[in-house]
Amino acid sequence: MVLLVRRITVLIMAIVLTLSFYKVVANAESTANLSEQNTMSVLWFQSAGEAKGLYYQGYNIGRMRLDEIMKKERGKNNLKPAIVLDIDETILNNSPHQARYVIAGRKIPFNWNEWFNRTKAKPLPGAIEFLHYANSLGVEIYYISNRYESQKTAAIKNLQSVGAPQADSDHVLLLQPGEIGKETRRRQVGRTHEILLLFGDNLGDFSGFDVLSVSERNQAVDRYREEFGKKLILFPNPMYGDWEGAIYNYDDKKSGEEKAKLRKKFLQTYR
């Protein structure tokens, strides 16, 4: 009887261990699949001529709008003219960092800080030429990014290395402890400057888009439709951003399996 009980106990333990193993494997595969799913978005961003063309298009529009505003619409107040730009995927190209994790899966921890400290990000098409043109018109340039304040030295160094004008501690405004979004920093600039144009790859780079659901973000885009191409210049970023965060209800602690299910849930198909 004792021997039978021992055998049953061993069998139960073996089953439990086996199930635990397959659960770990399933979770690992689910997590790895999230990285694998990013292959096409990173590949498009790095390889597609369409991506490059959209950056040139955005900065060409920015140049035309600056000309119009500086020649016809100035003089309404005594504030200095300024433009506000995001940094990552607006001026600097961080896609090599994204590609590294697609190739490695989840074998290495995702670490923005390690990449930022390299200060090796290259400029995106048209960005530096446009910034120099704005600088030549006497427009102040503010770089408002959600990189952390502790990453400021590296951000300034990288911007300066690619020739971005006015890239100094007064013009590079990064995320402060306890701050959500960029609105506080935009208002800070707006107290002393007239913000002519805003540039970004995320709707959160503009006012009125923070912490909205997927449907709310799209409704907000409809409300501000007249501002896109006029005051708001938006660039493509299929690799990451609040568009993805909204799908997860901004809960990055969700498991890879949960995120994968939500990704499919938001797909629209037909019957």
Protein described:
The chain has 271 residues and is of the alpha/beta class. It has one domain: HAD superfamily/HAD-like (Rossmann fold, 3-Layer(aba) Sandwich), CATH 3.40.50.1000. The protein has eleven helices and seven strands. Strand 6, helix 9 and strand 7 form a beta-alpha-beta unit. Helix 2 runs antiparallel to helix 4 and helix 3 packs parallel to helix 6. The longest helix is centred in the first third of the chain and has 36 residues.
Assign the CATH architecture.
3-Layer(aba) Sandwich
CATH class: Alpha Beta
* Helix and strand composition category: alpha/beta
CATH topology: Rossmann fold
What does this entry show, briefly?
With 271 residues, this protein is α/β, with parallel strands linked by helices.
How are the elements arranged and paired?
Layout: H1 2-37, H2 39-47, H3 49-73, E1 80-85, E2 92-93, H4 95-104, H5 112-118, E3 122-123, H6 127-136, E4 140-148, H7 152-161, E5 172-175, H8 183-190, E6 193-200, H9 214-223, E7 232-234, H10 242-247, H11 256-265
Parallel strand pairs: 1-4, 1-6, 4-5, 6-7
Antiparallel strand pairs: 2-3
Helix pairs in contact: 1-11, 2-3, 2-4, 3-6
